[in-house]
């Protein structure tokens, strides 16, 4: 309220009109400066008193606050006074409401620039031996790691898969290099009670395929439904047993901006099997033969590729590979293989999954491809962009390899025997010749000696070093004498010494040296 | 009047009064803060995730530290072998996910939700709303109610976690009016879009700890408060109550009720035959005179005064209210947005669940009520 400004007001101004604030009446002359008389300060002026009181009050409050801080160390009073600036790390509030706009996570060709998150899904079973290889791939991905969320499903494992996995992941998250750290990491444990064996032979046997594929599909669905979040733009499925793949595979596949995309999957082979081979036969284009075949099968049947039982005559992505072809070439496909699938998260959000039943006569990844096509999504494969699956020899291969190993061993043995025989032959032959030579030189020596002795005794000394044969003979004689002194079969030793050419040469050298001295 | 009052009044005030006043202020502030910031019980805090990158079915700790490096998310293990699904979910502390595709917000829906007696600490709500004007309005109203409950409401009312999603595709029809919505030629497109919305909501929110999924339409405004316990008690993979609608009977001049959801049915040979003659992409619809299927509809199986726990097997289900074991969805059963055995959306879902070995059931005498427009 401003009494002065309201001219018509009847309100009596409280202070300034009637007197000063110290209680003295206003003098008639407003401009008189000098006080009327000296006024001693008997009591403290009110404002000072008030200030002192406030200080005291402040002190009490501060003490109370400090006390409160000790009583409720993470109390919310403190955060009020400090405006939340100094709250300690352990103090947390719960956020119970989350809001996501799914139109922000559509997935684009250059996702890394728009910070699009990828969910990397890896189903695992008894895969301990493959994990070190997998983690080396993980460390090498060039897509920003903090944008990749990892999800693993460990099911029915009898080895140390889980422990090795946890250790490796914790190492990555504790890495000194921030670049290595991944986003959310979830490990889902779920046992489905698989009756089907995971070894290569039973895994690829025709009879086991349908039920095996359905169980695999179930595992994949459990993993996806537990790990997919509203902030994912892409989902990448990757098997652990990929041996070689480009580090840039995520970007490479993403650049195509397709709903579902797979590379070509081959595997290296030992040379005797041809060096390389198409591995993943589940990426194919539908054929009329296969459609006709599907018509004849019952509701629960599952068509599986790569078996003589179902001749589908489908064009397979794997067989269309040209090592020198354009890696960006695309091919429309209907069934996809599960070794390495990049799909937009929107595909999975809209309900496409890995059918654990016979969907249009297909299950798991092939059914996934079929279902994605059914919902008008683009499903493509890259025939000339290849990743390499680990080569695990099949039982036949192992048998073959064992046979080959045996053959190799037999061959080696034979070679060895042959070599020995040749050596023996040579030895005995070499024995004779050397003996012959020796005898000859000895004979010659004797003849020469006799001759020399007879002719000139003075020349003998100077010629000695130049005639190793003579020195050898002398050394031998000396040695024999030595050995004889020590006792033993003298004759045998001499024969042996003479028989071994190498030793003879050694002796010759020694003798030569001795002679030189 | 001539004497100034200020200093005099202060002189009379004893410091003790001021101290008391100050203390009182602190107490008031304390309670103000206490009620504005959700202060959850220890058990709720214990179940919270430590990082925002976590399953949305749990709340997460808001990071309060403003300085220092952000720690990378931890390696989290979820053992799904330990997620139980039993007929007594409350005693086993099983998590429930209530999923609602929402186009309009009804206050009665929210009030009914709050009345559910199942421990709210175990309930996660998930909503998906279209991105149009109607959806924006509904979102605003929904968020207002959520804030009221989650921030200022008593703790027992607060839900474990709430997820709001906005659809990434436009609804095919401009209007959600009942008349327009139910035109037969619009049904396939409408229900395909609905199926996609349901799937988007389901697969992004299901998470690793959910035991049950309750599908509850946004226009279900009245259910028994023990709905979850009652339905779960039957221990069925899919179970649907009977959906009715209250209306004013102009003939009898009284409030009356009528059957509403005709998607809960048992198959008939006629329908099978109709389907076999249909094109690959055609769908069978229920409740239209020009497509008489002669299916046994659960809506008409209601008997006044009969046992509410009477169970019937179903071949097709509706989505108005439906309790599903999470494992059914985890196995891959979803709402097909295409003709799946000539069925679409929730009806197709029942069929897909059946293909995976899960049989649906219905409770014809257990009623829930739909909003009347």
Which regions of chain B have little confidence, pLDDT < 50, spanning 5+ residues?
none
What's the name of the CATH homologous superfamily of chain B? Spore Coat Polysaccharide Biosynthesis Protein SpsA, Chain A
Nearest-angstrom radius of gyration of chain A?
48 Å
Which term fits the overall shape of chain B? globular
Largest sheet of chain B: 10 strands, mixed
CATH architecture verdict of chain B: Alpha-Beta Complex
GO cellular component, one term (chain A): mannan polymerase complex
GO molecular function (chain A): alpha-1,6-mannosyltransferase activity
Membrane topology (chain A): Single-pass type II membrane protein
Region (Disordered) (chain A): 405-487
What's this, in brief?
Chain B: Residues 47-74 are annotated as: Disordered. With 517 residues, chain A is α/β, with parallel strands linked by helices.
Structural description of this entry:
The complex is a heterodimer of chains A (517) and B (373). Chain A has 517 residues and is an alpha/beta fold. Chain A is built from 15 helices and 12 strands. In chain A, strands 3, 4, 5, 6, 7, 8, 9, 10, 11 and 12 form a 10-stranded mixed sheet that branches. In chain A, α3 links the parallel β3 and β4. The N terminus of chain A is likely disordered. Chain B is α/β, with parallel strands linked by helices. Chain B has one domain: Spore Coat Polysaccharide Biosynthesis Protein SpsA, Chain A (Alpha-Beta Complex). Chain B is built from 11 helices and 14 strands. In chain B, strands 3, 4, 5, 6, 7, 8, 9, 12, 13 and 14 form a 10-stranded mixed sheet that branches. In chain B, α5 links the parallel β4 and β5. Chain B is globular and about 95 Å long. In chain B, 44% of the residues are buried. The interface between A and B is large, with 82 and 89 residues. β2 of chain A pairs parallel with β5 of chain B, so a sheet runs across the interface.
């Amino acid at each position: 309220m401003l009494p002065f400004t309201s001219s018509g007001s009847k309100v009596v101004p409280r202070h300034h009109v009637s007197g000063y604030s110290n209680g003295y009446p206003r003098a008639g002359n407003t401009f008189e400066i000098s006080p009327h008389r000296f006024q001693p300060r008997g009591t403290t002026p009110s404002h000072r008193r008030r200030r002192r009181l406030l200080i005291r009050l402040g002190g009490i409050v501060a003490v109370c606050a400090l006390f409160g801080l000790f009583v409720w160390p993470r109390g919310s009073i403190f955060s009020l006074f400090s405006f939340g600036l100094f709250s300690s790390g352990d103090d947390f509030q719960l956020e119970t409401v989350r809001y996501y706009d799914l139109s922000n996570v559509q997935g684009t060709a250059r996702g890394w620039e728009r910070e699009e998150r990828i969910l990397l899904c890896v189903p695992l079973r008894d895969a301990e031996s493959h994990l070190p290889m997998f983690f080396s791939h993980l460390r090498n991905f060039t897509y920003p790691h903090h944008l990749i969320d990892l999800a693993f499903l460990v099911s029915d494992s009898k080895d140390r898969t889980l422990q090795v996995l946890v250790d490796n992941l914790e190492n990555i998250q504790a890495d000194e290099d921030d670049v290595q750290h991944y986003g959310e990491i979830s490990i889902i444990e779920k046992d489905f009670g698989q009756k089907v064996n995971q070894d290569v032979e039973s895994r690829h046997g025709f009879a086991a395929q349908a039920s095996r594929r359905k169980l695999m599909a179930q595992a994949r669905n459990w993993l996806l439904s537990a790990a997919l979040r509203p902030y994912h733009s892409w989902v990448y499925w990757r098997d652990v047993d990929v041996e070689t793949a480009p580090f840039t595979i995520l970007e490479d596949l993403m650049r195509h901006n397709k709903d579902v995309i797979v590379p070509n999957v081959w595997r290296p082979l030992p040379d005797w099997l041809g060096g390389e081979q198409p591995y993943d036969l589940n990426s194919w284009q539908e054929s009329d033969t296969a459609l006709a075949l599907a018509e004849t099968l019952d509701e629960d049947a599952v068509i599986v590729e790569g078996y003589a039982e179902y001749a589908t005559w489908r064009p397979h992505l794997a067989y269309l590979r040209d090592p020198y072809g354009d890696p960006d070439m695309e091919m429309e496909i209907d069934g996809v293989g599960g070794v390495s699938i990049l799909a937009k998260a929107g595909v999975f959000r809209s309900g496409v999954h890995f059918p654990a039943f016979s969907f249009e006569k297909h299950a798991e990844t092939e059914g996934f491809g079929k279902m994605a096509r059914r919902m008008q999504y683009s499903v493509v494969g890259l025939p000339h962009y290849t990743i390499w699956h680990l080569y695990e020899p099949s039982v036949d291969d192992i048998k073959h390899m064992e046979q080959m190993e045996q053959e190799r061993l037999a061959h080696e043995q034979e070679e060895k025997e042959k070599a020995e025989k040749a050596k023996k032959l040579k030895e005995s032959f070499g024995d004779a010749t050397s003996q012959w030579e020796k005898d000859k030189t000895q004979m010659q020596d004797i003849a020469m000696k006799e001759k020399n002795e007879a002719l000139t005794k003075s020349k003998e000394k100077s010629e000695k070093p130049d005639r190793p044969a003579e020195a050898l003979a002398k050394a031998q004689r000396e040695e024999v004498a030595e050995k004889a002194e020590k006792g033993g079969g003298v004759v045998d030793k001499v024969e042996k010494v003479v028989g071994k050419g190498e030793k003879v040469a050694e002796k010759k050298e020694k003798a030569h040296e001795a002679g030189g001295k | 009047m001539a004497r100034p009052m200020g200093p005099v009044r202060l002189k009379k005030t004893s410091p003790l009064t001021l101290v008391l006043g100050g203390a009182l202020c602190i107490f008031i502030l304390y309670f103000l803060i206490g009620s504005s910031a959700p202060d959850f019980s220890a058990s709720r805090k214990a179940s919270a995730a430590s990082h925002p990158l976590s399953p949305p079915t749990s709340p997460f700790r808001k990071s309060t530290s403003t300085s220092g490096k952000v720690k990378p998310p931890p390696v989290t293990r979820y053992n799904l072998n330990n997620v139980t699904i039993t007929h007594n979910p409350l005693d086993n502390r099983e998590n429930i996910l209530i999923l609602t595709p929402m186009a309009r917000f009804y206050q009665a829906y929210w009030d009914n939700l709050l009345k559910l007696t199942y421990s709210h600490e175990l309930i996660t709500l998930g909503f998906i709303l279209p991105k149009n004007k109607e959806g924006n309005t509904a979102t605003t109203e929904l968020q207002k109610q959520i804030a009221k409950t989650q921030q200022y409401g008593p703790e027992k009312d607060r839900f474990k976690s709430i997820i709001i999603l906005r659809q990434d595709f436009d609804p095919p029809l401009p209007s959600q009016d009942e008349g327009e919505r139910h035109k037969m030629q619009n049904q396939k497109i409408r229900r395909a879009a609905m199926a996609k919305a349901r799937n988007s909501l389901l697969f992004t929110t299901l998470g690793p700890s959910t035991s049950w999924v309750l599908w509850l339409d946004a226009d279900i405004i009245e259910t028994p408060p023990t709905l979850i316990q009652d339905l779960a008690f039957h221990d069925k993979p899919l179970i649907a109550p009977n959906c009715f609608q209250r209306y004013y009977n102009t003939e009898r001049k009284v409030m009356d009720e009528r059957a509403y959801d005709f998607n809960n049915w048992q198959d008939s040979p006629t329908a099978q035959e109709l389907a076999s003659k249909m094109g690959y992409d055609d769908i069978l619809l229920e409740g239209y005179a020009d497509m008489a299927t002669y299916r046994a509809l659960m809506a008409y199986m209601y008997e006044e005064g009969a046992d509410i726990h009477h169970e019937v097997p179903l071949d097709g289900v509706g989505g108005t209210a439906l309790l599903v074991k999470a494992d059914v969805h985890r196995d891959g059963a979803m709402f097909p947005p295409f003709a799946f055995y000539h069925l679409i959306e929730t009806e197709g879902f029942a069929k897909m669940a059946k293909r995976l070995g899960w049989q649906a059931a219905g409770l014809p005498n257990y009623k829930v009520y739909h909003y009347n427009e």
